[in-house]
TrEMBL record:
Cross-referenced InterPro entries: ADH-like_C, ADH-like_N, ER, GroES-like_sf, NAD(P)-bd_dom_sf, QOR-like
Gene3D superfamilies: Medium-chain alcohol dehydrogenases, catalytic domain, NAD(P)-binding Rossmann-like Domain
Record's protein name: NADPH2:quinone reductase
Presence of the UniProt keyword Transport in the record: no
Keyword check for Repressor: no
GO molecular function terms attached to this record: mRNA 3'-UTR AU-rich region binding; NADPH binding; quinone reductase (NADPH) activity
Organism: Breoghania corrubedonensis
All residue ranges annotated as the Enoyl reductase (ER) domain in the record: 11-323
Keywords: NADP, Oxidoreductase
Gene Ontology CC annotations of this record: cytosol
Amino acid sequence: MVRAIRVHETGGPEVMRFEEVEIGEPGAGEARVRHEAIGLNFIDTYFRSGLYPAPAGLPMTPGNEGAGTVVAVGPDVTEVKVGDRVAYVGPLGSYAEERLVPADRLVKLPGEIDSRTAAGMMLKGMTASYLLKDTFKVGPGTTLLFHAAAGGVGLIAGQWAKHLGATVIGTVGSPEKAELARAHGYEHVIDYTKENFVERVAEITGGAKCDVVYDSVGNDTYPGSLDCLKPLGMWVSFGQSSGPIRDFNLALLGQKGSLFATRPTLFTYVAQRADLERTANDLFDVVASGAVKIQVNQTYALADAVKAHQDLEGRRTTGTTVLLP
């Protein structure tokens, strides 16, 4: 028996319980991983609240990423062996001391990446990777706006986009978060509690606006995000921390400059093993080079997941947070 967070009914953070569970031995194509650290992400709150239905129903264990050591493998596993240090993103169920993971979802950690860093950066870092390198190819000459610049994905994306040569604009909700964003690659930072971000983007760019807007906020930044784009620009909606956009008017894309819009997810971009390895290795390389620094700003015991979710949804966290078994 191991201990894990279980959700028997969806709702607020208080529905999470720390319980003993039996996970069994790995089957064909599976590995058993003993966690050293577990990543905390806003998407975890969507599954807990019921906004996103858990694929296997209830009860369920939240969490999409973790890092640790392989302690057992099932038949036909070739990707990893017992003793390997590994990290992964998905499937659901990482809020546990140990768990079974499809072996083809595991990636081996290089020696210079510790488990806390890995657990805190896999989902956020690979998200930044596909957003900047696949969804829209960012490079010299690109001007971009990234909402929630002081969040976990935002702090990684700001550094990475600067490394790629882009002009990087970010929005934040406080002076403290503005300072944090500036230290992580953002050339221009807009405090949306004091400034109109659409007007400020126009001022910063001399009216030229942005090639791409990355928006994980949702309701509160729509349709303003569209007004920050130049003609033929791309709006990338990859989250909804302020609530879903319920009435998306497709005609606005034409009215505001023949804009493009997409709602991507990491899991589609890394569905194939080769794409998973490429994306993870891009992340490992940029972190190992020092171009992107991963700072774990908060740690909580796994048993304190309720408090961690309360702080996350209350916007009392910045950057990367991990749970420790």
